[in-house]
């Protein structure tokens, strides 16, 4: 029923926790889930009528679809838990995914490497300087797209590190990234000058909203062939890992964890924790996506 989808849409619009991207993805996921319940014939008309049986139906439906990965299911479960909290009934969703027999994510893949670098020729073809600087920030500091678009140099630049506001970041978590190279310092200095000359605090033009600039970013990057720019985070992660540990990551042909010496294992663990922090993750295991294992 449209009423159910509408009710979750209204709730999401009034509870925009986290970054724009996080909130948008959560709303899209929950609207699709409510549509699935309606299509299945459940007669509820408001999200406050949700019960455990509805959650179990959704989980089984997702698990039976070979095109939906374990990671996607776990993301959807986090959206459902968020929804359950907002409607004041958290018990309708079990605390542990294991209660639904959802498998653990498989992070390890030492063969495919998604790391990429920006092509200077493509950067020169961009007609929007704001987008150009956002892309260069993504490469230099491993930022997500939203973080690089919302970046405010006057706030972020702390001489030896940059600080990202929680409102720019996935999950609403503020974080710090050290400035370790002259190239990073020069880029930040350029962005300071650029923002002053354009009378703007961030890498969003004064006459545009974030959503409008994001569409400009998407159009410009697609036009010059700079797509899949999450690969810039992969590149940053691998570069930082090498700097911190003195080791090549498995994704780049380095030793796997089983082949490391005791001293290398310690360096590996410390570097992974630091890389995870700089990327805005709280878990060391997620680094396997970027570095391999």
Automatic annotation (TrEMBL):
Domain called Putative integrase N-terminal: residue spans: 1-91
InterPro entries named among the record's database cross-references: DNA_brk_join_enz (IPR011010), Integrase-like_cat_sf (IPR013762), Integrase_catalytic_putative (IPR024456), Putative_integrase_N (IPR024457)
Keyword Nucleus included in the entry's annotation: no
GO molecular function, one term: DNA binding
Annotated keywords: DNA recombination
GO biological process, one term: DNA recombination
Keyword Nucleotide-binding: no
Residues annotated as domain Integrase catalytic: 125-238
Chain residue ranges for the region called Disordered: 247-275
Domain of life: Bacteria
Protein name stated in the entry: Integrase
């Amino acid at each position: 029923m449209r009423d159910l989808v509408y009710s979750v849409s209204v709730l999401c619009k009034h509870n925009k926790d986290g970054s724009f991207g996080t909130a948008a993805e959560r709303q899209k996921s929950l609207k699709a889930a409510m549509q699935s319940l309606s299509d299945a014939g459940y007669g509820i008309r408001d999200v406050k009528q949700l019960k455990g049986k509805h959650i179990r139906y959704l989980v089984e439906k997702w698990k039976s679809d070979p095109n939906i990965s374990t990671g996607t299911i776990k993301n959807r479960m986090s959206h459902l838990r968020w929804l359950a909290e907002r409607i004041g009934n958290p018990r309708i969703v079990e605390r542990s995914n294991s209660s639904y027999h959802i498998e653990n994510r498989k992070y390890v893949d030492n063969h495919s490497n998604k790391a990429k670098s920006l092509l200077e020729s493509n950067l020169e073809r961009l007609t929007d300087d704001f987008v150009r600087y956002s892309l260069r920030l993504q490469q230099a500091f491993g930022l997500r797209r939203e973080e690089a678009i919302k970046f405010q140099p006057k706030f972020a630049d702390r001489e030896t590190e940059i600080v990202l506001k929680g409102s720019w970041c996935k999950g609403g978590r503020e974080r710090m990234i050290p400035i370790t190279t002259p190239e990073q310092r020069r880029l930040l200095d350029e962005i300071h000058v650029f923002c002053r000359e354009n009378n703007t605090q961030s890498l969003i033009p004064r006459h545009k909203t974030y959503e409008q600039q994001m569409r400009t970013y998407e159009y410009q990057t697609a036009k010059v062939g700079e797509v899949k720019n999450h690969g810039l985070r992969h590149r940053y992660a691998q570069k930082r890992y090498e700097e911190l540990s003195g080791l090549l990551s498995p994704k780049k042909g380095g030793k796997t964890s089983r082949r490391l010496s005791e001293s290398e294992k310690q360096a590996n663990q410390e570097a992974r924790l630091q890389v995870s922090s700089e990327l805005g993750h709280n878990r060391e295991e997620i680094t396997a996506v970027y570095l391999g294992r």
